[in-house]
Amino acid sequence: MDEQLAKTGFFYRLRYLVTPFFRSERKRAAWLLTIVNIVLTLLVVAANYAIVVWNGRFYNAMQKYDVNQLWFLGFIFFAIVAVITVISTVQQYTIQKLQIEWRGWFTNYLLGRWMHNQVHYRMQIDATKVDNPDQRISDDVDFFAGQSVNLPISALQSVVTIASFGFMLWVLSEKLRMFGVYIPGMLVWFNLIYAVGGTYLLVRIGRPLFYLNNIQQRAVGDFRFELIRVRDNSETIATAHSGAAESTRLSTRFAPVVEIFYRRIRRTVLVNLFSFSYTGASGILPFLLVLPSYLAKRVLIGTVSQTFGAFNQTQSAFAFIINNFSTLGSGYLSITEWRAVIDRLYTLEVSLRHHEQEITAPEIVYRAGTTSALVIDGLTLALPDHRVLLNDLNLDVPPGERLLVSGPTGSGKSTLIRAIAGIWPFGAGTVQTPGGRVLFIPQRPYLPNGALIQSLMFPYDEPLDRALVGDTLTSVGLGRLTAKLETVEPWDRELSPGEQQRIAFARCVLLRPDVIILDEATSALDEDYEALMYRTLTMALPHATIISVGHRSTIVKYHTRRLRLLGDGGWRDEVIAPAPEAVG
Ligand SMILES: Nc1ncnc2c1ncn2[C@@H]1O[C@H](COP(=O)(O)OP(=O)(O)OP(=O)(O)O)[C@@H](O)[C@H]1O
């Protein structure tokens, strides 16, 4: 992945990010809006051209006291202004329309790929982590779509302005003399040298802003991530009375944001010093160039005014980049931010592609079984850094078996569960994952935001019989919640960890899976409740396959077989004679 990142340049990355939208199912809208925007941009330049020509004619007519011509030009002026108003308004609308079309499509495109085949999970556990993918998908896509429309349109407008007004300046230069000498295209050359020289200097002064922007956005993302962690763990922090320590830690995390911002400000001061003096000087220069010819009565005042207008137009076009340097948060910074955003989105793209390819050529081969049996053949589990956790596991778990996976902490039990769920990518061998309905219950079950009944249905969205739901809640000791099934609360904060674990068992009973995978699913319960949960489960679902992970010796009796992970990559498969009262 790193090699792929290293060998690509800016334009390659830009093309890589832009192309999919113009080939997508929204390509008609994309192309149509782009063409309309190009045409409108050309019309805007044409209208500006007309205004400058009008200006020259108007001042000449004033100097000659030509009343008829002045009336005529007055009428023309209103016509041009009316046309400019309509074109500019429509252009603003179509630019924004293209931006939101692009943003909408791109967001859904990335979201779909991120969520598909657990790619989001693979990206998280991978050694080559992409930081803050959420920020990339929300903020970066917004900025990318906005600037990828704005900047090329502004660039096009600048180029066409330079070409058309450059031609005008060339024609105007024919009447000018500098110290009595005729220089063909004098105004054009002067303009060119002034603009290119200025742009070059400004690009050099502003270059570090690109890097500073990039690291600033990363620092902001990291800080926000820490804040979210505090919010999620607010109770633990409160009970530990560690608010002050957390606050210091958060401030330390925030410090780089301020430090980088200062570096940005210092650099922007330099950029602004140059930019403002440059723009200021360009206000008087065209007059100085035309003045000798005007005083020698070679040209009329209208020519002076027209030269000034044309000079200004080409200057601002040439200075497209320069003007963009001048203010904090816009202009040049938007170009550098755009580049930074392109880099970040490209890295995200490469990572997505890397994981999508990994799925098509996996290290561990997953096959979906047609029965609820689990068949593991020569499975080696490794970590992202290739450290081996478990070696050459062969295991056949027939339907209805109750398997306990045990072993010292860190021996790879949870990782094996991930492999059984078909989401662990590193290692070798084959896993035939159980077919039918499989329900996974982790130590901290996920309770989605919403009504309690939704937590009982998760991850399926099927109607449940309310009487049965009431009975089931009662059977796990949560009968009092029957009245609150439709209540919307942050249930993961409202209920204690033990209650949440019991909700997960109730969910299991209600959804009637063929295979139940329990990863430390009773860790927050006392022995009585633990016994109640296993008994409820085995009585309600006597034919279900159960695969449990747990440390406590008390759960051994609810199982018929034990897989011991030895911690050194080795394993042992043992039969357990279940206690009679444990069998459902
Ligand atoms: N995404 C990952 N990246 C790097 N190392 C990982 C990753 N996931 C797990 N590990 C490491 O793999 C080892 C096994 O982890 P696992 O959670 O499977 O152990 P476990 O047997 O379930 O432990 P416990 O009993 O403490 O829950 C640990 O050393 C852990 O740090």
TrEMBL record:
Domain ABC transmembrane type-1: 35-330
SUPFAM superfamilies xrefs: ABC transporter transmembrane region, P-loop containing nucleoside triphosphate hydrolases
Molecular functions (GO terms): ABC-type transporter activity; ATP binding; ATP hydrolysis activity
Transmembrane as UniProt keyword: yes
Compartment annotation: Cell membrane
InterPro entries named in the record: AAA+_ATPase, ABC1_TM_dom, ABC1_TM_sf, ABC_transporter-like_ATP-bd, ABC_transporter-like_CS, ABC_transporter_sub-D, P-loop_NTPase
Residues annotated as domain ABC transporter: 374-583
Keywords: ATP-binding, Membrane, Nucleotide-binding, Transmembrane, Transmembrane helix, Transport
Cellular component GO terms held in the UniProt record: plasma membrane
Transmembrane segments annotated in the record for this chain: 29-51, 71-90, 153-173, 179-203, 269-291
Name of this chain's protein: ABC transporter ATP-binding protein/permease
Organism: Acidiphilium acidophilum
Record lineage: Bacteria, Pseudomonadati, Pseudomonadota, Alphaproteobacteria, Acetobacterales
